[in-house]
Every structure is written in structure tokens, then in C-alpha cells.
Amino acid sequence: MPPAELAIRARRAAFNRAIAAGDAAAIRPILARDCVMVTGTDSAVIAGCNAQLKVWQREFAAPDRLVYVRTPGAITLSPVEPIALEQGEWQGSERSGGAPAASGVYTAKWRKTGRHWLIEAEIFVTLG
């Protein structure tokens, strides 16, 4: 596995750990300043790192919040630019460890900036 793919998978694992822990501060270094997220069910567009962190903080404060896990399948590295596309499946489960409440597929665009890979865009689609 190429080092860039390993680095992206490690950043995704860190993002998953931050969601599980309810730690918005740990999400910040994984997101590009102008990142965009399109949510899975209502296709809400959340533009910018600060806007996304506010959404996560609100989510983390909810007593019955879901814990989301994104599981990468394929990661395609560009041979001409420091960018990559991640494709995988996501699942949101009750924090208490209950059954999945929602699930689907996602794509994420990553860019290497300096030494780190950052998420520039994510699109989620709810399938279950």
C-alpha cells in the first residue's frame, strides 16, 4: 500500500476516533479551511471548517447523538496532483452501542498540504 494511502487511512481513523470521543478539536486539523460537506439525507451543504465544527459541536452535545463511522474502501491517488479520492461506507449508531440508525456510502476528496492530508470535500448518501 502506498504511503499516501496509509496516511489517508490513518487520518480517517483519527476522524472516526474524534467522532466517537465527541472531540471537535481533534477534527479541526483533518479539515481544509474551505472544506465542504454534503449530508446524506437532506443534502445540506456545510461550507467551511468553522461551520462544520459548529455542526459537530451541536451533534456532540445531543444526549441521544449518533456515532458515525466511515469505513474506507478504495482510495485512488492522483498521479499528477497531490490529491486523492476516498470511497467507502458510513454508519451512524446510537452512542449506547445500539443498532445502526442510518447508513450509506460516501466519497471524500483529500489534498496533501505541507506534510498532511486534509479533507476538501465529502458527499454522503443515505441508503439505509
Estimated share of beta-strand residues: over 45%
Residues in helix, %: 25-40%
Mean pLDDT: 96
What CATH first level would be assigned? Alpha Beta
- Give the structural class: alpha+beta
Count of helical regions? 3
Strand order of the largest sheet: 2-1-6-5-4-3
Low-confidence stretches: none
Distance between the termini: 31 Å
Which fold does the CATH topology refer to? Nuclear Transport Factor 2, Chain: A
N-to-C series of helices and strands? HHEEHEEEE
Which architecture would the CATH scheme give at its second level?
Roll
Overall 3D shape: globular
Largest sheet: number of strands, sense, barrel closure: 6 strands, mixed
- Return the domain count: 1
> What's the β-strand tally?
6
Describe the structure.
There is one protein chain. Strands 2-1-6-5-4-3 form a 6-stranded mixed β-sheet, covered by helices on one side. The radius of gyration is 14 Å and the shape is globular. The mean pLDDT is 96. It has one domain (3-126): Nuclear Transport Factor 2, Chain: A (Roll). It has 128 residues and is α+β, with helices and mostly antiparallel strands. The longest helix has 19 residues, at 3-21. A hairpin with a 6-residue loop joins strand 1 (31-38) and strand 2. It has helices at 3-21, 24-27, 49-61; strands at 31-38, 45-47, 66-77, 83-94, 100-113, 116-126. It starts with a helix and ends with a strand. The protein contains 3 helices and 6 strands.
